[in-house]
Amino acid sequence: MELTLLGTGTPEGLPRPGCPCAACAVSVGSRSRAATSLLVDGALLLDLTPGAVLAGARAGHSLAGVRQVLLTHPHDGPPVELPPGLPAAGRVPDGRELAVISGHRVRAVPMDSPGTGYEVTGPDGSRLLYLPPGGAPAGTNGTSGQRPYDMVLADVLGRPEALARLRATGAAGPTTDVIAVHLDHDVPPGRELERRCAAAGARAVPDGTTVTVGEYHAVPDLPRRTLVLGGARSGKSVEAERRLACFPEVEYVATGGTRDGDAEWAARVGLHRERRPASWRTVETCDLAPLLVEGGPPLLIDCLALWLTDAMDRAGAWDDAVWAGRGQNELRERVAELVAAVRATRRTVVAVSNEVGSGIVPATASGRRFRDELGRLNSLVAGECEHVLLVTAGQAVVLKD
């Protein structure tokens, strides 16, 4: 099957009309995006959007051969004028299959939100899945004994768990070409968009791009070990969670534990839990080395600063006399054990830590000791990671790639 993406943006398009945001301001020229619409083999049109005929002409395709027009989601706003010669647009009931005169078969996939997904099988046997904006398959969407989809087009950045569900059921595999569509202004275009897509194992293409379903496209793998640094409220935890959002299983390692009677801390923990997908498993521990050594799904460790606090507690490192005696050696041994485990791990790991040393010098010896030891720990762990990011004001800067 040959697929032409007449548009790749949200129903409002990008830039959004009248929106003054920074992402819309730079979404001009080749970075602008019309509402997502797909032309399959010149015969099947998925989603009819304003300017479809002109978009097709710009991409070198005519809509004269379209035999079926299907809609995936409710279209708000003024009705879209049906170009002359095109059949009336409709929707296939959930679970039903439609045979198109062109030889394509279309099955409607139920969604967990208003809209319909479409599984399209071409005359050549290739298969694609197209999901509506903000939609994810309802329940499980296995492949019914078939191989994974050759291509998935979905709201990867807005609903990453949709892709995670498809991977969990085997509907999307390592060779599935994942294309991000319904792109909105919550992600700035350019390198940031590419980075977010790559973290999800997906790619974004410009409007008017023609692709061949079943043709393999290499996407940069998520680095096996990633360290995400940042100050307080910098967005580092959100960035770390985002990098694993499309994985069907993640083991979230919380090193902070619980603090009886601390309502503010409980509120912080609650916010983190609400943000995480329901499929993630949470482990509250500071014993990281065994987790890194054993096999299993990706690990998200949040955070190393709290791990160091626990390690210094155990070593009695806050006390000057203990630190000068046994404390320093005990702490260094524990840090060396952790760093060796990071070096040897076979799991995908994303670790979060606080970046320190750029602000006020702590007033106490123990405070300065913690600052220095965390700086050393960050440097040692970063040396064992393939990828290191620094998050400042919600913006991720690549330090090592």
Overall average pLDDT: 90
Please trace the helix and strand order, writing H or E for each element. Answer: EHEEHEEEEEEEHEHEEHEHEHEHHEHEE
Total beta strand runs: 19
Main β-sheet, in a few words? 7 strands, mixed
CA-atom Rg in angstroms: 25 Å
Which features does this protein show?
single chain; 401 residues; alpha/beta; seven-stranded mixed β-sheet; six-stranded mixed β-sheet; 10 helices; 21% strand; elongated
Topology:
Blueprint: E1 2-7, H1 22-26, E2 37-40, E3 44-46, H2 52-58, E4 68-70, E5 89-90, E6 97-99, E7 105-110, E8 116-121, E9 127-130, E10 151-154, H3 160-168, E11 177-180, H4 191-199, E12 210-212, E13 225-230, H5 236-243, E14 251-254, H6 263-275, E15 281-284, H7 288-293, E16 299-302, H8 304-315, H9 320-344, E17 349-354, H10 365-384, E18 387-392, E19 395-400
Parallel strand pairs: 3-4, 4-5, 9-10, 10-11, 13-17, 13-18, 14-15, 14-16, 16-17
Antiparallel strand pairs: 1-2, 1-12, 2-3, 6-7, 7-8, 8-9, 18-19
Structural summary, described in words:
The protein is α/β, with parallel strands linked by helices and 401 residues long. It is 28% helix and 21% strand. It is built from 10 helices and 19 strands. Strands 15-14-16-17-13-18-19 form a 7-stranded mixed beta sheet, sandwiched between helices. A hairpin with a 3-residue loop joins β2 and β3 (44-46). The model has no long low-confidence stretch (mean pLDDT 90).
Compact description:
By secondary structure, this protein is α/β, with parallel strands linked by helices.
